[in-house]
# Entry
Amino acid sequence: MKNRMAQLIQSDGRCLFLPIDHGYFQGPTRKLEKPGETIKPLLPYCDAIFVTRGVLRSSVEPDSAKPTILRVSGGTSMVGKDLANEGITTSMEEAIRLNVAAIGISIFVGSDYEHESLLNLSKLVDEGEKYGIPVMAVTAVGKELDKRDARYLALCSRIAAELGARVVKTYWCEGFEKITSGCPVPVVMAGGPQVDTEREVFDFVHDGIQKGAVGVNLGRNVWQNDFPVAMIRALRAIIHENATPKEAQELYDSVKKAQ
# Structure
């Protein structure tokens, strides 16, 4: 367990995860139609990828792969009745076979399927602890984006930790310190939909790090950017080099010009 956690959270206590699991409910997401091509130039700058087993097998080269967090929940889609009605889609034996560093599952606190999703997390933790595989809980909000406030996300994050998650992925929000101060396991920030400017991303990532997050799990704000390598390098500077948002913007602009 400690070895796998060390693969994810680096020696400086920080991490940069790159999620490319969006297709499990969105289908061929813009700029992720060919995930192997999307991530190839980004892999040198991330610490781990968050991916489903199908894309891991089909699109990630095993001899150059980063540590893997395997998405093991799903069973719903954007056109279905309720995104919260997820089940476990991948066995622990499959996770072991794929040599993953961790597994990830969404929980839907406050939804009609709260009970089922929290028990799914508990069952996965039981299985993961048997084999030394950490579980990352994702505090999902489905289509209800208005749930992204500190009180709700602090509730979700604490419940996930109480049920045994080793890492919690949640959204940045105003008052982010309320989430990290009440969560006894490492917290990583999700990005959500792409924002209007790079500087907005640098600002919230820097704020979250200052308020206790250990890193990020950002996808669309990286690979949907017109200059994804510049974006991930700037984010890496904030996370691993303590760069300010202004310094990150300068690095982004510099790499952008060179591309």
About this structure: The longest strand covers residues 102-107. The chain has twelve helices and ten strands.
